[in-house]
Predict the structure of Glyoxylase-like metal-dependent hydrolase (Beta-lactamase superfamily II).
Amino acid sequence: MTSQLRIETFCLGPVQTNAYLIRGEDDNKAIIIDPGMNPEALIRRIENLEIEAILLTHAHFDHIGGVDQIRKLKGCPVYIHPLEADWLTSAKLNRSAHWAPQIEPIETDPAEYDLAEGQTLQFVGHSFKVFHTPGHSPGSVSFLCGNDLFSGDVLFRLSVGRTDLPGGREADLYNSIQSKLYTFKDEVKVYPGHGPATTIGYEKVHNPFVHI
C-alpha cells in the first residue's frame, strides 16, 4: 500500500501564494510546487533536503518568484507547460513588470522540462498525473497524486481563478473545472494556489461559480 504524501504549505509573497513542499516516505527527499516570492522560510526548511523537482501550475509572477534561487541552491529541474515556457524569461508575460516599482521584475532561466496533458511524473515515491486546466492562464495545469490535487489558480475554496488577465478565458476555466476536476472523487483534497484547502465534493455542492 502506497504511503500518503506529507504536505507542508508556505504562504509566500505580497499576494499570499501557497507553495507546497511535498515528501513521501523518505524524510530527505521532496518536491516543491509553485515556489513564490520572498521564499526565505521555504529555503530555510529545505536546507537539508534533496529537492527532486520544482513543478509549476502556471507562470504568473507570484508563483515563480523563488524558482531560480531554489533551483540554483538545490540543482533541481523545473517543469512548466510549454504554453507558458517563455513567461519564465519575460517579466512582461509573467506580469511582474506590471507591478513595478512595487516589486522587482522577475525573470528566470528557462525550465528544463515541459508538462503535457496525461503525463505521469514519478517523484518522492509517488505518481503525479498532469492535467492541462487552462482558463486562468493558457498553460495552467493541475497535479493529481492519489487523493491530493494541486489546482494552482484554477479552483479555490468557494471560488475560482480570475480570467481577466492576458491569456485568461472564462469558458476554458469552467470547462477545466467541470470536465476534469469535478470528475475526481468527492474525497479528493484540493490544495489551491491561494487560500485554504477544500475538497472536490464540497466545491461541487457549494462553489457559487461552477456547479455540476
